[in-house]
Amino acid sequence: MKRREEPLGSLEHIVLLAVMRLGEDAYGTTIRREIENATGRDLSVGAVYATLVRLEEKCFIRSSEGEPTAERGGRAKRFFRMTADGKGVLQNAHNILRKLSTGLKDLEAT
Amino acid sequence: MKQHVALHVATWLLLRLVPKDLRESLLGDLTEEYVWRTNGASPSAARSWYLRQICASFPHLLWLMITRSTWFPTLGVALVAYVAVGVVQVIVYLAIPSSAAPTYSPLGLFVVFPLVSIIGYVAEYFRRRAALLLSGMMLAAITALTLLGTENVPFWYRLAYFVVGPAAVLMGGALHSSSATRS
Question: Each residue of A49-59: pLDDT tens digit?
């Protein structure tokens, strides 16, 4: 089921970028920290998971369960990977932003 | 001790809002960061971080649960059908000239109830159990109007709306369900 035409919300955009940056190591905690480091926003784990669920429903990411670890109280991680649709929608959003911001002197100055 | 109990209760409540397949990983993520913060800072700071996380997560996960639940679209269909019932009533009473029938006449009811039944059928077509929800909404509305309304409406008329209205909707819904089962 391909749903590339689905719009991307601002938090979805940020979470998707974090998943892309983290690659093989993208799971709840690392995604949350990546966003916190980049934006300074202390996102709740619930906000991250709600966004991940929506992104998975839109087929922009897929998830798989990892092995349980002791530091997590014996609970398994759920890893998230970007799909081709996810990459496509990010490229599309990036192209739009680039086109719209080209030539804007106020933005270039900052 | 009380703080630990509060954390357990809050966590348990939060997990009720999370899709089952994500509960373990979400709890694991919280535990992992809690342990990391306990080692790096004071345990009380870690506990307050944990509690803040739980509180801040509630609205997001609650909204996720509402938007993913099956009853939300059903409620939407039932609401639209409820408006349709109101529109049908107005049209029927405008169409029947007052010389042919007074405001509260069996003639109007004989025309309205089959149409209401069709609305129940269509609502059930779009969403399972929408007809049931619609009949409940009609019952509630008629009860409220009976208790709070000041208009002098004949008892038989109210009774007809109280019994036949919701029954007509249910009949329409049941008709759709039985035809769907046969096919």
Answer: 999 999 999 99
What spatial distance separates the first Cα and last Cα of chain A, rounded to whole Å? 41
Cross-chain residue pair A75–B18, CB shorter than 8 Å? no
Cβ proximity of B108 and B88 under 8 Å: no
Contacts of A101 (CB under 8 A, 6+ apart): A107
How is chain A classified by DSSP, letter by letter? Answer: ---TTS---HHHHHHHHHHHHHGGG-BHHHHHHHHHHHH-----HHHHHHHHHHHHHTTSEEEEEEEEEGGGTTEEEEEEEE-HHHHHHHHHHHHHHHHHHTT-HHHHH-
CB–CB of B28 and A77 under 8 A? yes
Question: Which of B7, B21, B60 to mutate to test binding with chain A, by most A CBs within 10 Å of its CB?
Answer: B60
**Cβ(B128)–Cβ(B74) below 8 Å:** yes
User: Complex ipTM, two decimals?
Assistant: 0.84
Shortest distance between the Cα of B1 and any Cα of chain A, in A, equals 20
Structure confidence by residue, pLDDT tens digits, B78-89: 999 999 999 988
Contacts of A71 in chain B (CB under 8 A): 31-32, 35-36
